[in-house]
Amino acid sequence: MSMDSTKARERLGRIILERSFKYSENPPFTLASGRLSNFYFNCKPTTLDPEGMNLIGLVVFDMLEDAPVTAAGGLTLGADPIANALAVISFQKGRPIKSFIVRKEAKDHGTKSAVEGNVAAGERVAILDDVITTGGSTITAIEQARRAGLVVDRVITLIDREEGGRENILQHTDQVQSVFTRTQIMALRAKAL
Length: 193
Description:
With about 190 residues, this protein is α/β, with parallel strands linked by helices.
């Protein structure tokens, strides 16, 4: 990791802590899975922020710098700003990585495609996600990408909640990387208190 990337990652951690992380002993948060949790990540205030997007693009580009991928994307909506940030930064760095979107359901008109973007069967890609809990949405994205003929090289997520999702995803691909884990964000929170 370059010095610029290390600084970018540190700043990104602070932004996630300020804007995208909530902690509550009582009452707990209800997650999309229906489970109750004392902490909640809403990454959109970070992934849709100009500084947050720039930092995410830099950090994820650094993670993919030596990867044999030509494109990156994932299930809409969580992956979209991450993929777009990566595409812009990668172009600026002289190694363009295209972004693509995986729809929750294939369109019922036109090309009827579940994958949107300038990608073709046979391309090696990274699947992106903002938060992994059970891994369900990431696995859906992997399956849809493969149906479109894409070769999934790895998964990169902004946050791993460390609740079994990573292990579930590893049953579908060889490599899962996270920018941050829940443990790392909790450590940042403890330092900030």
